[in-house]
Amino acid sequence: MNISNHLINRESELEQLSKEELFRIDEFRRRVESFESAVKRYYVGAIAKHAISDDPEVKKATFEANTPELDHIQNLALKFRFFYAEKEPTKLESVIGLLRRRAKDEWARNYLDLVRKQYNEMMNRCDMSDSMGHPVSNREIINLWFNSDFFHSDVDKRKKLSVINQSISEQVSLFQLYTAITGVLTQLNSVYAVTHKISSNTNTICTPNHHFRRKSQAKA
């Protein structure tokens, strides 16, 4: 993978990683490479439009988007699931937590905190559904599609997704799902860059050459 130089200008030491932790890092990098390849293969510039109106029904009726075919979204979802599912060793938040615990300096820890904050902000966004008068977070959209349709058959979640799709339309729901999944690639690539030098012989992580102080630290 190509890594932007500005993401790896500074090096920090990690505490020694266990074999299990090294496996998780290796597996995370492999999954990011696979996911990025799939995103590029199925990429369409996420463009949506609808009539300007205060009436959500008018917006739904006039909504148009270049959402990929459902099987393409399902393939992306399958690859994204490794960064999202609670029990996966490559879950993004868990990998960030592992790196943060092992990082020896505040500089690296603060950067990892920033990436985690950016990820959570992306997961909490609800722009498209909110514009239709029924805000649903990206995290919830992903959870419902994954657990009621794509990978599991949770009846209660299927009913909840059906209610949401009736409120905002299935087309809007799928578009938000697609943009939610692909929108996290930036944070995945950032953590990939952090880990790209880690090996059984190298306990080094890389970050931008900028001290991302917490607000409380900056005011002190």
TrEMBL record:
It comes from the Bacteria. This is Uncharacterized protein. It comes from Grimontia marina.
